[in-house]
Amino acid sequence: MRARNIILLGLVILLAVAxxxxxxxxxxxxxxxxxxxxxxxxxxxxxxxxxxxxxxPSGEVETFLFAVQAAVGAGFIGYYLGYSKARKKVLxxxxxxxxxxxxxxx
Amino acid sequence: MFLLRLPDMCKRVLLTAVLLGVFLxxxxxxxxxxxxxxxLPLKWCxxxxxxxxxxxxxxxxxxxxxxxxxxxxxxxxxxxxxxTFVLSALKIPSVTGSCSHPTGVGLGTVLFGPTAMTxxxxxxxxxxxxxxxxxxxTTLGANTFxxxxxxxxxxxxxxxxxxxxxxxxxxxxxxxxxxxxxxxYVTTSFQLAxxxxxxxxxxxASLVKFMGIFxxxxxxxxxxxxxxxxxVFNLLTVHNRKELEELTxxxxxxxxxxxxxLQ
Lengths: 106, 263
Prior knowledge:
The complex is a heterodimer of chains A (about 110) and B (about 260).
Chain A: H1 2-22, H2 31-42, H3 59-98, H4 100-105
Chain B: H1 2-5, H2 8-24, H3 42-69, H4 74-89, E1 92-93, E2 99-100, H5 105-112, H6 114-131, H7 140-164, H8 169-195, H9 202-239, H10 241-246, H11 255-258
Helix pairs in contact in B: 2-9, 3-6, 3-7, 4-5, 4-6, 5-6, 5-7, 5-8, 6-7, 7-8, 8-9
């Protein structure tokens, strides 16, 4: 299963990296400006009637916050999977020492 | 059906190759993410908010019920939330020459059902609206409806259908996550087209335009999300079998025979 997951992960990386050289001259920008353009193209007079309560003061701060979001989530996922893996191992070993005959039968 | 008989790897590679081929020839430059703050007229904000509300209440109910019945799956619920949290933060380059991010609601839907993900999805959207100026408070209802109602329900139906057709678990999980992701952005296109019908061509013309922006960029990301969801699901079937059986994600004893890529 490990090999399989590594291959899957490789595919994900490929899917993310391939566009970078397939569309070399693109900007790879974020949503806000272009989606705005699309709307104002369809409805030239439209003015957004509400703006964000707080905006990250710069692109760097925004990137930082996105990185924090990803790191916190990934940290928890890693913690939980590691915890589960170790717990399973410990439980299996406890079973082995407690009832060795039962294990050998199955 | 013959596709089902090919070795797993072949199918994955084939699917990726075919879809990648399609994207390469798509010339649109577009950006795709949630609807920005202030970019939905008030009446639509209210309407989508009202439409989301019942799912939210059902979701809170569903989470309460699940955690009361199986207190030991709380951590797993955290995992589902964390997965959405991570994937929502990953803006990945797409073959249209712009970036978008996956939603990550498929995993939680498979584990806890669709309405539970309405709650978790909304929390993530709220976080991003307040701290990252991504999406918005006024558009929270509409964005929750697309990402945390339509997305999970699509994933749920697809997963159930795959289970019914006795497709391998990995295929069910993959399709559920990928289509849930894709339909989220199709819904976003619908929402924008409804609010902004074109002067010429009306709703349909707008829909085509917004689909070009939101849905096409999302295609490769939907595949990525499907693959990532399968990876985590694979790990869970190995290390957290007990919890999965308790949640009847897969019937007890079923995992080893149909397991996601385990055979």
